[in-house]
Amino acid sequence: MNRLIKTGLLSVALLAAVVVQASNKIIVKAAESKKVEISLSEVVSAETLIIKDVQNIILFSEEVAKGQSFEKTFDFSTIPAGLYFIEVKGAKKVEVTPILITETSAAIVPNSSKKYKSPNISLDDKLAKVFVNNFNEDKVSLVLVNESGQELYTKETKELVSYSALNFEALPSGDYTLYTRIGDYGFEDTITIK
Fold first, then answer.
1. pTM for this predicted structure
2. Is the pLDDT of residue 165 over 70?
């Protein structure tokens, strides 16, 4: 009976390890030789892999199509020491991993990877409900503009979960754009009112 329980626990542990590995979308490995391995898997929609410096200067950018995987080793020995960012950017999310390059090595900054998601917008007739997850506790800005670029609504918050109800009852039909900025990352959504 003890052996059966141990085997069952081992099976659960192995299954959990496989699930954890399978859920890794981006794997970044840094080595002492100033080389960084990046692999991207489970791409369910087109994404862009970007490497940039602290001044937002893009050093590398590549599109990864839906269903594809990406594996590449980057050699940082020719660039100055400093902080760099690896971004995986999709239409509705951004994943950011900082990399510290020293004179002799490349290292991932521990516990500093962040994920940003675009707002969840649901439209019920002429009422748009906007939820923003802000688990990084960054500053969140919402700006709603009409087709001519006129600002109709603005909000700033640092709440963990932000909710806004946008009532379009008194506004004409058409496309409205909601700009959401979470920390350094922005999302643009179109709300169509009929």
1. 0.71
2. yes
Q: Are 35 and 104 part of one and the same domain?
A: yes
C-alpha to C-alpha distance for 125 and 194, rounded to whole angstroms: 8
Amino acid identity for residue 32 in this structure: E
Residue 10 has pLDDT above 50, yes or no: no
Q: Are residues 148 and 81 in the same domain?
A: no
The whole-angstrom separation of Cα 93 and Cα 90 is 5
Q: Are strands 151-157 and 140-145 parallel, antiparallel or unpaired?
A: antiparallel
Structural Rg of the chain based on CA atoms: 21
More confident call, 3 vs 108: 108
Task: Please answer whether residues 144 and 188 qualify as being in contact, where contact means their C-beta atoms are separated by less than 8 angstroms.
Answer: no
Domain boundary (66, 89, 115) is at: 115
Asked whether the beta carbons of 46 and 66 are under 8 A apart, the reply is yes
Q: Could you tell me if 122 and 99 lie in one domain?
A: no
**And the tokens for 109?**
């900054």
Between 5 and 169, where is the model more confident?
Answer: 169
Q: Given this model, what pLDDT does residue 12 score?
A: 35
